[in-house]
Amino acid sequence: MSKRPVSPPTGGALIKRAKSSSNDDTREIAISSNNDVRKKSLIRSVPRTSGLDAPIVSLAGAHSGEIFSCRFSPSGHHLAACSSDRSLSLWNTYRPNTNFGLITNIAKAPLLDFQWSLFQPWIYTVSADHVLSVVDTTTGERVRKIRAHAGIVNALDRTMAAGGAGAELVVTGSDDGTVKVWEGSADDGVGKYPVRTIDVGCPVTGVCWSKDGQNVYVAALDNEIHVYDLRNTSTTPTSSSSIPHTLPLLSLQGHTDTPTSLSLSPDGNFLLSPSLSSTVLIHDIRPFSPSPTRVHRVLRGAPAGFENTLLRGAWTKDEEAHGGKPGQRVAVGGADRMVCVWDVESAKVVYKLPGHKGTVTSVDFHPREPILLTGSKDGTMLLGELEPGIAV
């Protein structure tokens, strides 16, 4: 009496087929047919869209605290992150994804935000001990340290000076209710004293330059985004402060809670601002807007949570990498430990990306390829590929 043959498995099995060619741009996934794993049939070939070693790359081990900000370098070959452990980490974007630098002597309090310099191998950082610092990424040494504000410095941004002067301008915003503009120096980073001080009147959570470097956008605790023209010197005297209150050119409304950060579109026409109300707004900042409120899009899907974290969003930068014009997509992390990527024109969610174990605090798009960088309160970062274009 012969034994009864073994029953075949109830469902199909996913099997990765060995590549038959030397082309590194594809990955093949085979699904077995007829409930037999030995009979493999190729269903489809999944194209790779970037130069990453894998579709998803985890960057961990450098920080022991929450990551507050992470950004690609202007070239895209490197990236950096700042953390509550008071350190700044430097990484290679491509293989090997090594952490080639960990700078720990920048400040005595958590580093809250940073920006890469546009023409020097420097990084500007701001911290909770009221300090603006300049770090040389080639040597790992701090070039400059300035007691910039009387309160916690939440955000900064940099641009090239208007008129082709060749100087780099840095703007910082603080809990002391002021925004300060600093002029870059080729010798020691930035000047000792600010070239312009703007009294907003309430704590500042985000700052951003206009594309021409003449206006500064300021997100404040009064739920509004104020626009200041640096050429305008209109002020009102105040009795409680030695700094006269600067009058904004205009104020962008629409938020019902504090905006957490600001990000300018690549063409300079739109402004992205997440908020503590779990609503992300895109304002139209062109001189003549078709909307009286200047609210271009209202995006939902990224909960802010109860921790009052300053979430930082980003725009796509390259036209070819994302299958359309620059600024076609925006991304913001959330307290649900996921990242939302929207199509700007349709305001629809294109991606809802998991992977982190804590609130996703910061995101950034690669300047040349469809790669999304995310940083989280779990102290890790993720690099992930996106498809160049998706119909929505």
Automatic annotation (TrEMBL):
<dbReference type="InterPro" id="IPR001680">
    <property type="entry name" value="WD40_rpt"/>
</dbReference>
<feature type="repeat" description="WD">
    <location>
        <begin position="327"/>
        <end position="352"/>
    </location>
</feature>
<keyword id="KW-0677">Repeat</keyword>
<dbReference type="InterPro" id="IPR036322">
    <property type="entry name" value="WD40_repeat_dom_sf"/>
</dbReference>
<dbReference type="InterPro" id="IPR020472">
    <property type="entry name" value="WD40_PAC1"/>
</dbReference>
<feature type="repeat" description="WD">
    <location>
        <begin position="252"/>
        <end position="286"/>
    </location>
</feature>
<dbReference type="GO" id="GO:0003723">
    <property type="term" value="F:RNA binding"/>
</dbReference>
<feature type="repeat" description="WD">
    <location>
        <begin position="353"/>
        <end position="392"/>
    </location>
</feature>
<feature type="repeat" description="WD">
    <location>
        <begin position="60"/>
        <end position="92"/>
    </location>
</feature>
<protein>
    <submittedName>
        <fullName>U5 snRNP complex subunit</fullName>
    </submittedName>
</protein>
<dbReference type="InterPro" id="IPR015943">
    <property type="entry name" value="WD40/YVTN_repeat-like_dom_sf"/>
</dbReference>
<feature type="repeat" description="WD">
    <location>
        <begin position="146"/>
        <end position="183"/>
    </location>
</feature>
<keyword id="KW-0853">WD repeat</keyword>
<dbReference type="GO" id="GO:0071013">
    <property type="term" value="C:catalytic step 2 spliceosome"/>
</dbReference>
<dbReference type="Pfam" id="PF00400">
    <property type="entry name" value="WD40"/>
</dbReference>
<feature type="region of interest" description="Disordered">
    <location>
        <begin position="1"/>
        <end position="28"/>
    </location>
</feature>
<dbReference type="InterPro" id="IPR052234">
    <property type="entry name" value="U5_snRNP_Component"/>
</dbReference>
